Each structure stands twice: as C-alpha cells, then as structure tokens.
Amino acid sequence: MSGFTRDHLEQIDALPVLGKLKELAEKTAALKNELAHWAPEAERQRVCEKHGNTTPIDWDASAHATAKVRLDLGNDQVCRLVHFRCQKCVADEGIAKQSAWLQACGVPANMLHCSFENYQVRVANDLAHAKKFASRKKGCLVIRGEDMGVGKSHLAVAIMREIGGGIFVTNDMLMVQIRKEYRQNGQVGLTTKERCIKTKLLIIDDLGTADGGGDVLTSLHTILTARHGNKLPSVRTTNMTEEQIEDYVGKRVFNRLDESLHTCITLTGESMRKQARTAYFED
Ligand SMILES: [Zn+2]
C-alpha cells in the first residue's frame, strides 16, 4: 500500500472545507466587532483585586464564549465578555500547583502559593535575612509581627519551599496533637514530638497563642531543646515581644533559643489580610 499521494489529494474537494472555514472566520470577526461596540467602557479593563493589575478584554475568548452562550440559550442578544487573566494570579496558581508537598508538610491551602518571589517586602532586609537563613539551614529564625497578617507566615512558608520539606504547625495545633497522643498512651507510632524533633525544618506558627500547661509545655521545651542541640533549623512566627516569649517558654529554654537565634525579623506595616481575603475566595 502506498501512502497519501498526489492522486488522493486531487480527489478531495477542498472547496467546501475552505468555504466553511472562511464562513467561520467571518462570523467570528463580526461577533468581535459587535462585542467591541457593545462592551461598556467600565468593563473594558478588569482590575485584579489581589494584585491591582489591570487586564483588557480577550476578544477571541469573548467571541467564543458569546457564540457558545447564544447557542445554549437560543438567544442572539446575549453577550459575554472574557478578560485576560492577571499574570501574577496565573503565576501564583502555577506555584501552588507545584506545591502539593507543602500541603503534606502541614501548610494550609491558602498559603501554598507563598514564595520569596511573591513576597511583598515589609521592612528593610526582611527578605535578605529569610533567604540567608534558608541557605544556612541552622539555628532559629524568629519572625515577629506587631499585627496579624503582616506576612510572617508567608515568609515562613517561603523558607520551607526553599529548604524543601519540614513540618509547619500552629502552636495551637501542636499542643492539641501532643495532648491527644498523651491520651492515646503510647499507642501511636512516631509521635508528633519525635517528628518535630527530627524534621529538617520546624515552623511553629503563632508561638505563644496556645495555652500550654504542664506536660504539654514540657514537650514543647523538649522539641526546642533537642533541635537546638542538633543545630536543626526552626522558624517561629509570633506576635509576642521577647519578654512575653520568655514568660511563655520559660527562662531556661529561652536562653537556649537566644543562643541559637539566627535573626529576629520584625515586620511592621498594614495588614495584608484584606488582600488575602479577596484571594481566598478566588477559584
Ligand atoms: Zn492577580
């Protein structure tokens, strides 16, 4: 059997196909023209609520969406406008998709996009300190914020992304988990405490928010002391002052933490929670 030859080609009547294509192109052009006249001025640009970028209408996608909705509804009067997507949002989503492992490390879904690249610098050298810590992988980094939502956890997740693993846990959840394992009376395999001691990076988010009490707080001391001894990196985010942390963890542990302190970054500025909230509800 021979392949596709010139003889075969001559047998195909290309004209009807070309005619259809031409007709389709003309319809699309007419639709785009109609939409261009119809589109209200206010809707010609869309502002990304998360990043503030403006994006114009994607006329090809709009024509396609309008044709589809007209066909679906059987109504030739309806119009649909589709805007180009904010490139920063697209980049964030791409980063989040690559980060399934971050979720496995305990990072909440709404923080999976966090990286050094999309961190909004708050104070001089905050990013530089965090990057240096991520490359040194030793000691303790404290990220303090006078307010909620100033980017503490973002920076912590960015460090985890750089180091490539670890455990991200809120102080509160850590206490709950340790308490639960006490009740199970040694029935669990590797305990939370053991995992926190061994992991390549431990991030305790919102240190000081949990009401520790007795044995549970002792476990926190054990974790922090063991990591200190093994020179394993830890990040603590907190709203507390140094004095309050000292009260919380006790003088003995505090002194050890102080010895292995890499840097304390204090983030100030307006809370980014509002922007974050907008992003949270985006699909
Ligand atoms: Zn955006």
Major sheet? 5 strands, parallel
Strand neighbour order, sheet with most strands: 4-5-6-3-7
At the fourth CATH level, what is the homologous superfamily of the largest domain? P-loop containing nucleotide triphosphate hydrolases
CATH class of the largest domain: Alpha Beta
- SS-based class: alpha/beta
Overall pLDDT, averaged? 86
Beta-strand proportion: 5-15%
Ends: how far apart? Answer: 53 Å
Describe the overall structure.
The protein is α/β, with parallel strands linked by helices and 283 residues long. It has two domains: 6-85, no CATH class; 99-280, P-loop containing nucleotide triphosphate hydrolases (Rossmann fold, 3-Layer(aba) Sandwich), CATH 3.40.50.300. The chain contains 13 helices and seven strands. It has helices spanning 6-11, 14-38, 59-73, 87-97, 100-104, 126-136, 152-163, 171-183, 192-198, 214-229, 242-249, 251-259, 273-280, and strands spanning 45-47, 54-56, 140-145, 167-170, 202-205, 234-238, 261-267. The strands form two sheets. Strands 4-5-6-3-7 form a five-stranded parallel sheet, with helices on both faces. Strand 1 (45-47) and strand 2 form a beta hairpin. Helix 9 runs parallel beside helix 10. It is elongated and about 85 Å long. The mean pLDDT is 86.
For this entry, give a set of tags.
7 strands, 2 domains, binds zinc ion, 283 residues, Rossmann fold, five-stranded parallel β-sheet, alpha/beta
Question: Topology, please?
Answer:
Layout: H1 6-11, H2 14-38, E1 45-47, E2 54-56, H3 59-73, H4 87-97, H5 100-104, H6 126-136, E3 140-145, H7 152-163, E4 167-170, H8 171-183, H9 192-198, E5 202-205, H10 214-229, E6 234-238, H11 242-249, H12 251-259, E7 261-267, H13 273-280
Parallel strand pairs: 3-6, 3-7, 4-5, 5-6
Antiparallel strand pairs: 1-2
Bound molecules: zinc ion (ZN).
Zinc ion is lined by residues 48, 50-51, 53, 86, 88-89.
